[in-house]
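Thread: Newbie trying to understand structure tokens

Hi all, I'm a second-year student working on a class project, and my supervisor (Dr. K.) asked me to get a predicted structure for one chain before our next meeting. I've only ever worked with sequences, so writing a 3D structure as a token string is new to me. If someone could post the tokens and maybe explain what I'm looking at, I'd be very grateful. Here's the chain:
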Amino acid sequence: MTSNSTNKPTLWFWIVGVVALVWNLLGVIAYLKQTFISDIKLVSLSKAEQALYTNVPIWATIAFAIAVFSGVLGSIALLFRKKIAIIFFIISLIGIIVQMNYSFFESKAKEVYGPMVIAIPVLIILIGIYLVTFTNRCIYRNWIS
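---
Reply by user tm_fold:
Sure, no problem. This is what the structure looks like when written as tokens:
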């Protein structure tokens, strides 16, 4: 006898879903602030920081957009308990990895901000991996369908 019904998710599911949505919305804000930085704000930065903003290649900006907007869609799908969340989180993780390739290997951010600038990208990658694995566990437990 098989059942197509879903199990009721735990409180932890809802907490992770809401935190994931907030996290990814903060990512969208960061993307918009970086992409549409005003000239006034840009000139207030040091020359080295200005170079960081103006020299970002288009592929890194596109990867950033894909990462954050897919993350938001994945979070919304997760909260609506839809399996498509896993697809959005995988796309987001791919976007994160491509974007962080620039941050780790091509950006001059380490020269401007020092070695601690690596901590945030690593954290972002780990959160992306966690959201994929968490969503996969939710599918396995029939919390989402």
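A couple of things are worth pointing out once you decode it. Residues 31 and 111 are 22 Å apart (CA to CA). The chain has a mean pLDDT of 89. Feel free to ask follow-ups in this thread.
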